[in-house]
Amino acid sequence: MMQWVARCSTGVLLVVISTRTVEGAFLSPSTKSAITSSSQRNMFTGIIEEMGTVVALEEKNDLPLWDGSTGSGTELTVKGNVVMDGAYLGCSISVNGVCLTATELDDGNHEFKVGLAPETLRRTYLGQLGAGDAVNLERASEIGGRNSGHFVQGHVDGVGTIVDRWIDENSLFFKVQVEPELIRYIVPKGFIAIDGTSLTVCEVDSSSDKPWFTFMLVEYTQKKIIIPSKQVGGLLNIEVDVLGKYSENALAAIVPRIEELEAKVKELENQLKNK
Question: How many Cα atoms are found within 13 Å in the side-chain-facing hemisphere of 77?
């Protein structure tokens, strides 16, 4: 294990730790071969690698569980080519913006299977997919590789509904309605992941009880993703920029402290005035 320590301009110590997997440690034989034969990957970029096809969406009662028993659940089978390159059991693949774990691989038919958890079915529209539907696919990004989109986790925050679409020269615009709790994280010119695609927000209206935002697709992108095939009323998986959520969480902890300090300052000012 290697460790670097650097002091930032603020005086805070920044510690970066790099670990290297020891061959054979804690890994099953199948996992060892998978790790050594493919690059390590982490998160997504929102740059769709290909459009795959849904083979089947099935409710099953014989899914193997961790203790050797079986249980019920939803299983999705998808056909893809690019995402099968370097795929291994347990790897992450984004399907319409949802980070899913490959549970079965069929290299001969270029198909992979993933399980859909109840939370995934609640948060996304994947449960409404059917055989033959096109889906956006992306492998998790390689550590240290380029990121032409933004940091996409594959953790969908909710579903948006297309309420309008129009063409401006060779650009295709969409107007999407989302729940009020999501709109506060969506800002003009900010990042957003829609069906797994990294896009830039154009306009935002957060003032009404039915908030909306718009985004635009250039001609090249229109040919590479599934969004242009969707009409008014169509559903989109929405993942807001995670930096907005972290910022809100950090401020939530800081603001009370600032208010407390301001109150103490005012108290001291009043004491000085009364002397």
Answer: 15
